Amino acid sequence: AGSKLREVFDKINNLLSGKPVQTEGQTVSVTQHPQGLEFVCYKLAEKFVKHGEGEVSFHHDSAFPIAVVLSGIWELHPRVGDIFLSHLHKKCPYSVPFYPARKEGTSMEEYQRMLGYEVHDSKVEEQDHFLKRMSGMIRLYAAIIQLRWPYGNKQGAHPHGLSYGWRWLAQMLNLEPLADVTAMLLLDFLEVCGNALMKQYGIQFWKTMFFIQKSYIPRIEAVTSSGQMGCLSRLKNFVQKCLQAEEIPLPKGILTPSFWRT
């Protein structure tokens, strides 16, 4: 509910503003320790990324309520946004976007960590689980760049708005595609913020969609084996439908004005 989300936002904002906040039966304040504010900013940013790789990866719709709170907090407390990006980029290098190359002397285990895989006791997580986590983080990022906290003053620009999404898309299409990962990330990104990018960039956006269909999808196909076609097929269908309809559908779960009256 919108009212519940406002409560969450106010509590986080009050904590970061140095006001005492009630939690689990005790009162806490960042002023209780010289590094209190820095610690809270760090843990909060980390928590938002964890929501992306956990909650959002399983429930796509949850990207929007989480993102709108973070967007508002970022506006009022830029330090949280900066640390959020550093956590996100480390956990999901594709959010830069960046495909780390393996350097000489780097162990396979270390390299897999650089690619975003979780490695425990030399065991690497399964590909499906890895892709799900990356998908959740990209969806959260794609939601953040298009959302503003509706109760802010909105005098300044969005601290990390759609221009960053446009840049992400352009840089992504300049990278050589990876099997599995590239098709999934592009589809996630376009499903979540394609509509917002279409409204903002118009004809330039449609040129990019046409480029994806004619040039980039064949390049993804060239590196994709027959057993990895699922996500690529979904991306192809999505792009084709959008180009035919000359419209990108609104993302599922977007927060409507009526949400804030609940």
Short characterization:
The protein is mainly alpha-helical and 262 residues long.
Structure description:
There is one protein chain. The protein is mainly alpha-helical and 262 residues long. It has one domain (1-261): Alpha Horseshoe (Serine Threonine Protein Phosphatase 5, Tetratricopeptide repeat), CATH 1.25.40.510. The protein has 9 helices and 4 strands, in the order H-E-E-H-H-H-H-E-E-H-H-H-H. The chain has a two-stranded antiparallel sheet with strand order 1-2. A two-stranded antiparallel ribbon has the order 3-4. Strand 1 and strand 2 form a beta hairpin. The longest helix has 42 residues, at 181-222. It is globular and about 60 Å long. 34% of the residues are buried.
Radius of gyration: 20 Å
Total beta strands: 4
| Shape type | globular
Termini, distance in Å? 5 Å
What's the total helix number? 9
Helix content: 55-70%
Chain-averaged pLDDT: 92
CATH class: Mainly Alpha
Order of helices and strands: HEEHHHHEEHHHH
How many domain regions? Answer: 1
Strand order of the largest sheet: 1-2
CATH topology: Serine Threonine Protein Phosphatase 5, Tetratricopeptide repeat
Low-confidence residue ranges: none
CATH architecture: Alpha Horseshoe
- Secondary-structure class: mainly alpha
Q: Give a quick account of the main beta sheet: strands, pairing sense, barrel closure.
A: 2 strands, antiparallel
The percent range for strand residues is under 5%
Question: Main traits of this protein?
Answer:
262 residues, 9 helices, two-stranded antiparallel sheet, 4% strand, Serine Threonine Protein Phosphatase 5, Tetratricopeptide repeat, mainly alpha
